[in-house]
Design a protein that fits this description.
The complex is a heterodimer of chains A (209) and B (123).
Chain A: H1 7-32, E1 36-38, E2 42-46, H2 48-58, E3 64-72, E4 76-84, H3 85-96, H4 102-132, E5 137-138, E6 142-146, H5 148-152, E7 162-171, E8 176-185, H6 186-205
Helix pairs in contact in A: 1-4, 1-6, 3-4
Chain B: E1 5-9, H1 13-26, E2 31-35, H2 38-44, E3 52-55, H3 63-74, E4 79-84, H4 89-98, E5 101-104, H5 109-118
Parallel strand pairs in B: 1-2, 1-3, 3-4, 4-5
The chains are: A alpha+beta (209), B alpha/beta (123).
GO biological process, one term (chain A): chemotaxis
GO molecular function (chain A): hydrolase activity
InterPro entries (chain A): CheC-like_sf, CheZ_family_phosphatases
């Protein structure tokens, strides 16, 4: 990890995001009616190729499906929910349950994943916005299939770093694991960190609204 | 006896299917109509006056908040609630200003029951 963030800033970012990701996990656990386990978030500053390779390592270099939303506020970037393609239908089945006939599940898989992603990613972004007292605009979710580079779609120059925040989660009931990732360029990562530091300063001073 | 109509507005077919299933389980005799956008919802109310409306927020076109504003004006007696993944406080506040309720996705049955119990009755 680079020294881009001081330890205190990294702690602050991790804490705020832990809460936001907890909201996302709550939404997922309500949908699957089962427990969702989360890893401690990891924050790394990587070049685009390195970030794609890191994701490939996490997914065993298998094809993944991802739901992506572009967000913007004081900072902007992409938030992604990533699943192994081989298990995505299991997730859809565990969420839709009896409300959809079995023979319609495959046809609906992509739409169902978009809706699942919409709920989980907005739970995370919404919690982040509420904690920081900001409004965060987000795009409609889009569906992506492929390996690391295609999933992350980092458009920065090869020399520029991106902040990759990754949380691994697993849903025991569905036998599924996946990843939640934020990708921001360095300018946005700095603004993001500044917004969190300012928020924490307000909390510590007792002036947070 | 006049029928009770509930309008579900969401650009996601899967979301509409899940909400329809939840409403049908609780109110099997109600008429459930669907719209895939705010524009479609505003067209639909020309034919069927809903007693209840559940609206997604982030949709292509005019979106759920603007649709709720127009529905509140055109169907003043209808019970309207957002049903959205967008849990930001600013969205809740705007819903309150419009006179609409707020429910977060995923839909919880107890919240749906409260909405269905507290809405307008068919005229």
């Amino acid at each position: 990890m680079t020294d881009f963030l001081r330890d205190i800033e990294r702690d602050a970012v991790t804490e705020i995001l832990n809460i936001a990701i907890g909201q996302a996990a709550l939404a997922l656990s309500q949908m699957v009616a089962g427990e969702v386990s989360l890893s401690v978030p990891s924050i790394e500053f990587l070049g685009p190729d390195e970030a794609a390779d890191r994701l490939d390592q996490s997914t065993g270099r298998q094809v993944s499906v991802a739901i992506r939303q572009v967000f913007s506020s004081l900072f902007s970037g992409n938030i992604l929910l990533i699943f192994p393609e081989a298990r995505s239908l299991d997730l859809v089945r565990s969420i839709l349950g009896d409300s959809v006939p079995m023979d319609s599940l495959t046809e609906l898989e992509q739409e169902a994943l978009l809706e699942v992603g919409n709920i989980i990613l907005n739970a995370c972004l919404g919690s982040l916005a509420n904690q920081l007292g900001l409004s965060i605009e987000s795009s409609l979710p889009s569906y992506v299939r492929g390996r690391g580079a295609r999933i992350l779609d980092t458009t920065q120059a090869a020399t520029e770093l991106v902040m990759v925040l990754q949380v691994d989660f697993s849903v025991a009931k569905a036998g599924l694991c996946g990843y939640l990732a934020f990708v921001m360029d360095i300018a946005s990562a700095r603004q993001f960190s500044d917004a969190i530091s300012a928020h924490l300063a307000r909390v510590m001073n007792g002036t947070a609204g | 006896m006049t029928e009770t109509i509930i309008l579900l507005v969401d650009d996601s077919r899967v979301a509409r299917m899940m909400t329809r299933a939840a409403v049908a389980k609780l109110r099997p005799d109600w008429v459930i109509i669907e719209a895939a956008s705010g524009e479609d919802a505003l067209s639909a109310i020309a034919l069927d006056r809903p007693n209840y409306v559940l609206l997604d927020v982030n949709m292509p076109g005019i979106g759920g908040l603007e649709t709720a504003r127009q529905l509140r004006f055109r169907c003043p007696s209808a019970a309207i609630s957002l049903l959205t993944a967008n849990i930001q406080d600013s969205i809740r506040e705007q819903a309150a200003l419009i006179g609409a309720g707020f429910m977060a996705k995923p839909l919880k049955e107890d919240e749906l029951i409260r909405f269905l119990d507290g809405g307008s009755k068919p005229s």
